[in-house]
């Protein structure tokens, strides 16, 4: 069955998977969603005997129906190779009575690698399929991890260039250093004086600017996105939830059909939406526990049915979750609104205008799969220390938010369903915060001294992604005001 894609904001013409990947964002500003969420064609028992690449093919072939078997398998094989430091790609580690799904074994030690290792290959195949001769300009906003993962994925990929905007004072020192030292003649990194939401809004505005698109086309360019608004980012993320469930099945930790809970540290809502898609494909999921930090706009939404971004933006030690406009939530809104594009468009217009919208009681009733929770800075640091003390396992700040939320949820509900926590980044990426949480004596130490100490206390090898930063040269030093983002893009591409 062919799966086609339509915008969340209009019932207009549908597009193929490759066209949706190329466009990134629909012409009306909406996000592409599949005409229906397909079911897995293989049984979970059969998938439990497959490795990560084989599982990826089983999942992704259901969504990307205009890719041939050869095209899709080639993309998968090129993505999930020696860039990952473990053959498992996404290992499950049992600690402290819960399973941590480690999604940080790729080239940039964050979960974004899971999708951004394959997106460049999906995109270049999509361009060929649709006879695109323009150079594809990947335009991306990052709250810390997407930027580096996208830069690494697209560096020197023929027919593409990539421009990443990040909040200059809103990412960790390691995150920033990873981006500004990125090699590649087609890579550009720009710090902005605003926050992530400002960067994301600026990028969306450029995607929707028809005049800019015309000028770019005249010069042989067109935009696409590496953010999780691109369906080519979301589909590969569904894979690791299917993989996690079937690994538990394979090791006898679950009976076939037994439900599992997933806990996901959440900012832009893409990662937990992928778990929701996995459930809809046939994975037995009990609860999807959405973990927020102090920017708890999603927690408040699940509690009240009101999405309200009119609040203070708080910089935390889990910066990838410092987001007040969760773009991927639009896909869930569309689903719970009965796939009513007008309702979705009206709510997104309200969000852009007044900064808030309210869903109906009926829509709220459709979200019973989801539970919200949040952990502040003190609770997050305490969780890192607690888990390390109990098991010797060291987690990053984002994973700690999820872990703290889970343990509070379990205590409150007495829900003993087996649970998988998405561990979204290596502790090495946030060594300053992690080590200070373990022991105050580490506060104020040099970044790389802390990394060496983290290696000692955790008994894990320092990842290459961090080791190579010791001597890496800064190659990108551009900073602009938020309102000058388009001018900066025009200058980079030589449009004026």
Can you give a write-up of this model?
It is a single chain. The protein has 496 residues and is α/β, with parallel strands linked by helices. It has a domain at 92-109 and 232-464: 3-Layer(aba) Sandwich (Rossmann fold), CATH 3.40.50.1100. Helix content is 44%, strand content 15%. The chain contains 22 helices and 15 strands. The strands form four sheets. Strands 3-4-14-9-10-13 form a six-stranded mixed sheet, with helices on both faces. A five-stranded parallel sheet has the order 8-5-6-7-15, with helices on both faces. Helix 3 (52-63) crosses helix 11. The model has no long low-confidence stretch (mean pLDDT 95).
Choose one word for the global shape.
Answer: globular
Strand order of the main beta sheet, please?
3-4-14-9-10-13
Q: What is the overall number of helices?
A: 22
What is the CATH-assigned architecture of one domain?
3-Layer(aba) Sandwich
> Class of one domain, according to the CATH hierarchy?
Alpha Beta
Report the mean per-residue pLDDT as an integer: 95
Total strands: 15
Helix content: 40-55%
Query: Which structural class matches the secondary elements?
Result: alpha/beta
Low-confidence parts: none
Radius of gyration computed on alpha carbons: 21 Å
Distance between the termini: 46 Å
User: CATH topology of one domain, which one?
Assistant: Rossmann fold
Strand content: 5-15%
Major sheet: size, sense and barrel closure? 6 strands, mixed
